[in-house]
Amino acid sequence: MIPRFQTRNIAKIIQSTEQKEGVGARVRRSIGSVALPEFSPFLMLDHFKVEEGAGFPDHPHRGQETVTYMLKGAFDHEDFTGHRGRINAGDLQWMTAGKGIVHSEMPVPGEVNEGLQLWVDLPSEKRLCEPRYQELKSDDIPKWRGDNNVVVKVIAGRAGNIKSPVQTYTKTWYLDITIERGGQISQIIPHNWNAFIYTIQGNASISSHQVGPFHTVVLDLAGEGVTISNESKETVRMVLIAGERLDQRQRTYQHGPFVMDDQAGVMRTIHDYQTGTNGFERARDWRSEIGSRMTG
C-alpha cells in the first residue's frame, strides 16, 4: 500500500555535465558545482567514470565523510593506516576521514569503472574523530521490495520496514531505487531534512515532473515525502539521498579535501598535513602501492 502524505515539490533541477577530475578521470558533478555549491549536510556528489591509467592517487581528507557506491566495475582502496580493499559493482564504502586520512582510490585494470561519490559534512564535534570505515558487499545491503515493480537498496536509513546497518555521525538516508515499467514508490523523508534525487537511468516521473538521466532534483523542505513513478518502457534507476541540515547549528569552511568550521581551522589542517602532525603523522613517508600504477 502506498502511504498518503503531502508531497515535496521540486525546488531545482540541475543537469550534471562531465568534467575532468583527479588524474584522467571524468565526473558529472552536481552538488559542489557552481549551480549548487553546497546543500547541507552534503558537500559534493560526483558520478565518476574512470578507465585504466586514470584514478585518484594519494591524497588527504579531514573533517568529512566520503561515501563511494560502485555502479559498474571495481575500485581498489589503500590508506596510510594499512586499510586496503576492493569494492565491486553494488558495493559500498562509507569512509569517515575524521582527524585525517591519506588514501588512494584506483580503478581495477581492464574494467569499466563507474560509481557515485558523496561527501557528507560532519558535526563540528566529530570533525576530529578517529577515522573509520563501513564497507558492505552488494548482497549485504538490505533491500525493500514494493508492491509495484520497485526495489530499493537501503544503503543508509530506511525504506518501508527495512533499515540499513550503516551507522552515520550525520543523520543520512541513502536509497538506490529501481522502478520497472508501471511501478511507483512514495517514500517518506524525515521532517526538515534536505533531500535530493540523482537520476541514473531512464525517464522518471518525480512529483509529476518528467526527468531524464544525469539530473539532480533538489526537493523543497515542505512536505513529508516524494512520489516517483515510471511511465516509460525502460527501467528507471536513481538514488534518493536526504540528511539533517547542519547549517542550522554550525559553520562550514571547505578548502579542497579539508572541511572545518572556519578558515583558521583549515589553515591549521594544511599545517598539520604538511608537517605530518595531529593525525597526519603516518603521511610523512607513506606511499600507496596502488597509486604506483600511475606514478611508477
TrEMBL record:
InterPro entries documented for this protein: Pirin, Pirin_C_dom, Pirin_N_dom, RmlC-like_jellyroll, RmlC_Cupin_sf
Membrane-spanning parts: none
UniProt key word Iron: yes
List of residues binding Fe cation: 59, 61, 103, 105
Domain Pirin N-terminal: 25-120
Cofactor note: Binds 1 Fe cation per subunit.
Required cofactor names: Fe cation
SUPFAM superfamilies, per database record: RmlC-like cupins
Residue ranges constituting the Pirin C-terminal domain according to the UniProt record: 174-279
Keywords from the UniProt entry: Iron, Metal-binding
GO molecular function, one term: metal ion binding
Family listed: Belongs to the pirin family.
Protein name as annotated: Pirin
Gene source species: Neolecta irregularis (strain DAH-3)
